[in-house]
Design brief:
Helix 2 packs across helix 4, helix 4 packs parallel to helix 5 and helix 5 packs across helix 6. This protein is α/β, with parallel strands linked by helices and about 270 residues long. The protein has two domains: about 230 residues, TIM Barrel (Alpha-Beta Barrel), CATH 3.20.20.60; about 30 residues, no CATH class. The protein has eleven helices and eight strands. About 40% of the residues lie in helices and about 15% in strands. The chain has an eight-stranded parallel β-barrel with strand order 1-2-3-4-5-6-7-8, surrounded by seven helices. Strand 3, helix 5 and strand 4 form a beta-alpha-beta unit.
């Protein structure tokens, strides 16, 4: 469906804010390479997240923790080359901003200078405000991330829904308000109760993007490999699959093998 924002040449943080105010939902997906980023950008996605989930779906790691800043910049650079319209957000990986605000600034500047990306994302609330402030002071837009924060998985010990209890829910709301006041242009809420998402959306003026956070968020984000059915081992309640590429790709490769073995490929029309 065409909207006033669907034809914009380049999505910006300002336009995301306008979308929230107009009641238009924001679409966001991950991408990690040139080819897939080009496809989803051409389809009209609003925001592309070069997520540290590349550690899982691209490198096969169990968590997001092993991916390095250099690796994130590599993925980000590949995506930036492909994208004409979407706003590009890059995860600052674990260990590249928690140590100090100076380290956070150095990491953010490297990402922006070396990849050409538009913004960065950082996980955490009040405990990272000094780093958020330092990055923002350099003119780098920051997206926050609360709820289930995968970089802190060993602290939580589980990928279960966060902030079900009153105390944790109240802390999340306080953290969200603090991130907005610091100057974050948007916030991701991951795996929190739907009613809590609604409270945060009503409390904040900046866009709130949900993943496993219910329908009240201003937008939604999914990992591309999950929603396209490339990775079918991951089956959370919040995931809706829009394709079964695992089956399509497997069948195509098997047919290719059959054609090569049977000497059907290449035929005369496919030869020079």
């Amino acid at each position: 469906m065409s909207t006033k924002f669907s034809q914009v040449k380049r999505v910006t943080t300002h336009q995301l804010q306008a979308m929230k105010e107009a009641g238009e939902k924001i679409s966001m997906l991950t991408a990690y390479d040139y080819s897939m980023a080009r496809l989803i950008d051409a389809a009209g996605i609003d925001v592309i997240l070069v997520g540290d989930s590349a550690s899982n779906v691209m490198a096969g790691n169990e968590t997001t923790l092993p991916i390095t800043l250099d690796q994130m910049i590599y993925h980000a650079t590949s995506v930036v080359k492909a994208v004409q319209r979407a706003l590009i957000v890059i995860d600052i990986p674990f260990g590249s901003y928690q140590g100090s605000s100076q380290e956070a600034l150095r990491s953010a500047i490297r990402i922006m200078k070396e990849s050409g990306a538009h913004s960065v994302k950082m996980e955490g609330g009040k405990e990272i405000l000094e780093s958020v402030d330092r990055v923002l002071s350099a003119g780098v837009p920051v997206m926050g991330h609360l709820g289930l924060t995968p970089q802190a998985i060993y602290k939580f010990g589980t990928y279960a829904v966060r902030a079900r209890e009153k105390e944790e829910a109240e802390k999340l709301i306080d953290d969200a308000i603090a991130l907005e006041k610091s100057g974050c242009f948007a916030l991701v809420l991951e795996k929190v109760p739907s009613d809590l998402t609604r409270q945060v959306v009503e409390e904040l003026s900046i866009p709130v993007i949900g993943i496993g956070a219910g329908p009240h968020a201003d937008g939604q984000v999914l990992v591309m490999h999950d929603m396209l059915g490339i990775n079918k081992e991951f089956n959370p309640r919040f995931l809706r699959r829009y394709a079964d590429l695992q089956e399509i790709i497997t069948d195509a490769v098997r047919q290719y093998i059959t054609d090569v073995k049977s000497k059907d490929f290449p035929n005369l029309d496919e030869s020079y």
